[in-house]
Design a protein that fits this description.
By secondary structure, the chain is an alpha+beta fold. The chain has seven helices and seven strands; from the N terminus they run H-H-H-H-E-H-E-E-H-E-E-H-E-E. Strand 6 and strand 7 form a beta hairpin.
């Protein structure tokens, strides 16, 4: 049975006093004179009462009052008030040290909350701007695609009518190439502005990676670049959207291929780790500069001469929509490694009331 802290504090004092009283009684009984025994008993009783009273007063002033205040301040912190502080922090004993630690803890909590609130406001403002840009991009993409399709059709007709030996055919081929490039940019803009919800299926992640690697190998037929796939033995089926995860892996693979200037290797490895499927795409390319690493997942950021800078941003969004995360580590001159973590099972959705 747990005793109240006041009772536990008083018990040792009471035990000492009782022992002292018993000792005085024993001494008094050994005396011959009755009056002397009575006088000793009275003195002992008065001393015991005085000592007990002094101890209780000291206990109330030095321990009980700070603890009561401490409990009140903890209750206020629990209710969200982080402006509190205890008044006994100036004491030089253990109680004072406890008060100083409490005040410092509350101060750090207050600073952390203020920082979180600032970050939240910044993120909300950024989200509103991105939403506006997304709507604008989607509208522009739709407006551009229609006339672009007409231009592509006209170019195709012109190409059929040109003689085989006409030098204009090379120009038309270049124009067709640029039209396809614009279409890819518009598709990326639409995918970023209006992302699709994942279609989760319980399927083999090794098979998903195989399809992405097979597509990427078509880009290395004329280059001395080897793509190696390491399956995860015993990996259970993973809930994921196969098309979206293939898009993520293909984007990472193409980036890795483009990062290798001549001969090199790209490795895709899968493993099961701590309730997650862990996929790494590593290359032996030129690497990413340290000053660029914090920005590579930002929309429209790119270090390439061509591209929209949306590929990695879309990849991270897809992985996060699966409940996972996408990370990167890189070293200049040695290559990069992207790590995608996908939960083996999605958390159960709470039932709607």
């Amino acid at each position: 049975m747990r005793l109240n802290w006041r009772l536990r504090a008083v018990l040792p004092v009471g035990a000492v006093l009782v022992a002292g009283l018993l000792l005085f009684f024993w001494v008094s009984l050994s005396l011959d004179k009755t009056h002397e025994r009575q006088r000793v008993i009275l003195v002992a009783a008065a001393g015991a009462v005085a000592i007990c009273t002094a101890m209780l007063v000291a206990l109330a002033l030095l321990i009980q009052r700070p603890l009561v205040e401490f409990q009140e301040k903890i209750a206020r912190v629990r209710d969200g008030d982080l402006t509190v502080s205890v008044s006994f922090a100036g004491r030089t004993d253990e109680i004072g040290q406890l008060g100083r630690d409490f005040n410092e803890m509350v101060r750090q909590m207050r600073q952390s909350r203020e920082q979180v609130e600032r970050l939240h406001r910044t993120q909300m403002t950024r989200a509103e701007h991105l939403a506006t840009l997304g709507e604008l991009a989607a509208g522009l993409a739709h407006e551009i695609r229609n006339p672009l399709a007409g231009i592509a059709g006209v170019i195709e007709i012109i190409g059929r009518d040109l003689p085989e030996a006409s030098p204009a055919r090379e120009v038309l081929q270049e124009v067709q190439h640029e039209v396809l490039h614009i279409k890819r940019i518009l598709s990326d803009l639409l995918d970023y502005a209006r992302p699709k919800a994942p279609d989760f299926r319980l399927t083999d992640l090794n098979s998903t990676a195989e399809h992405a690697v097979a597509l990427a190998r078509q880009q290395t037929l004329s280059r001395p670049i080897e793509i190696e796939l390491r399956h995860a033995d015993g990996l259970p089926p993973v809930e994921h959207d196969t098309a979206q995860i293939q898009q993520v892996l293909l984007n990472l693979l193409l980036n890795a291929i483009q990062a290798i200037p001549s001969e090199g290797r790209v490795t895709v490895a899968l493993e099961s780790r701590g309730g997650f499927a862990h996929i790494t795409v590593s290359d032996t390319g030129r690497g990413i500069a340290p000053e660029h690493l914090p920005s590579i997942f930002r929309p429209f950021f790119t270090t390439k001469g061509q591209g929209t800078g949306l590929g990695l941003s879309l990849a991270r969004r897809i992985v996060e929509s699966h409940g996972g995360r996408l990370e990167v580590a890189s070293q200049l001159g040695k290559g990069s490694e992207f790590s995608a973590w996908l939960p083996l099972r999605r958390p159960a959705e709470s039932p709607t009331s």
